[in-house]
From TrEMBL:
Any Pfam family hit: Na_Ca_ex
Gene Ontology BP, a term: intracellular calcium ion homeostasis
Domain annotation Sodium/calcium exchanger membrane region: ranges: 4-143, 174-315
Subcellular location: Membrane
Transmembrane spans: 69-91, 126-144, 174-193, 208-232, 239-261, 273-290, 302-320
UniProt cross-references to InterPro entries, sorted A to Z: K/Na/Ca-exchanger, NaCa_Exmemb, NCX_ion-bd_dom_sf
Keyword tags: Membrane, Transmembrane, Transmembrane helix
Gene Ontology MF, one: calcium, potassium:sodium antiporter activity
Gene3D superfamilies, A to Z: NCX, central ion-binding region (1.20.1420.30)
Protein name stated in the entry: Calcium/sodium antiporter
Length: 321
């Protein structure tokens, strides 16, 4: 048990680190070959924080644990809003000025509702997985189009995204980081999933609950790091945009993976409990972000954080569900 816990922690660290290096190398190569900073920021960097979830969901699905893969998506989205934005707003109230974000927020809610529609019968099938990936491609193209228009107006989020792209990195160094990331990422994901299963069996946790708790929080660490870094640098739109983009990517891309790799019947608890929590915190974020103040203050951050603690506590008291 202690060995499994230690290996799980090592797997989490390797997962987050290798994903970061993979994205760093890919973004540097893209910049070096002349790809627009806007395209890099809205694709490679935006999707990078969801790389751990993608790899873990693929690994879990191939191991026949689709509940864990879907639980990772729902749990990560809940953690992104309730835990990460909650903590971030407690540190410093978040001001939202980007028009891109104001357009992304309704899209996030729409995608969340779509996931409920697809999961309503507690089954995630192959064609549903394909549909999610097609919509993911449409979403990327739509956001690029919106971003190009807003770039002319000097949108704050786009300027912050472009400032995060690495500069003065040689192709050789960038390729080395990409190779290291590609090698370590699946290895770390496998280590994380395998040892999570051992811990789950020891405590009598279901595959779904392990995905909603340990794995979800662990794979959300890149979003936590990015949001905290953004708010400390005064890049509030980046902190919030990172979460919104990650939640959309998680549903459209990450949840599509287990549907394609291992179509399965899912736990009834997904639609009976966890989807509604994800929808509730998503709507709460929209109300906070698009209200009169266009901000998330410390009190609202505290509310989000308390919701997360209460939800995790409930899950741990009902570990077999």
């Amino acid at each position: 048990m202690l060995e499994a816990t230690g290996l799980l922690i090592v797997g989490l660290i390797l997962l987050v680190w290798s994903a970061d290096k993979l994205v760093f190398g890919a973004a540097a190569i893209a910049r070096n070959v002349g790809i627009s900073p806007l395209v890099i920021g809205m694709t490679i960097l935006a999707m990078g924080s969801s790389a751990p979830e993608m790899m873990v969901s693929a690994t879990a699905a191939l191991d026949g644990k689709t509940d864990t893969a879907v639980g990772n998506v729902l749990g990560s989205n809940i953690a992104n809003i309730a835990l990460i934005l909650g903590i971030t707003a407690l540190i410093k109230p978040l001001s939202i000025s980007s028009m891109v974000l104001r357009r992304e927020l309704p899209l996030m809610v729409g995608v969340t509702l779509l996931s409920g529609l697809l999961l309503w019968n507690s089954y995630l099938g192959f064609y549903e997985g394909i549909l999610l990936f097609v919509l993911f491609a449409v979403f990327i193209l739509a956001m690029l189009q919106i971003s190009r228009k807003e770039q002319q107006n000097g949108d704050a989020l786009l300027a912050e995204c472009e400032s995060e792209i690495p500069t003065d990195v040689s192709n050789k160094k960038a390729i080395i980081w990409v190779v290291i990331g590609l090698i370590l990422l699946p290895f770390a994901a496998s280590m994380l999933v395998d040892n999570s299963v051992i811990i789950a069996k020891y405590f009598g946790m279901s595959d779904l609950v392990i995905g909603l708790t340990i794995i979800a929080v662990g794979t959300s660490l890149p979003e936590l790091a990015a949001s905290l870094a953004g708010v400390l640098k005064g890049e509030d739109d980046m902190a919030v945009g990172n979460i919104i983009g990650s939640n959309v990517f998680n549903i459209l891309a990450v949840m599509g993976i287990p549907g394609i790799l291992n179509p399965s019947i899912l736990s009834d608890s997904i639609m009976g409990r966890d989807f509604w929590v994800m929808l509730a915190v998503s709507l709460l974020l929209v109300i906070m972000a698009l209200g009169k103040s266009r901000s998330i203050n410390r009190l609202e951050g505290a509310v989000l954080f308390i919701i997360f603690i209460a939800y995790q506590g409930y899950l741990l008291m009902n570990m077999a569900a």
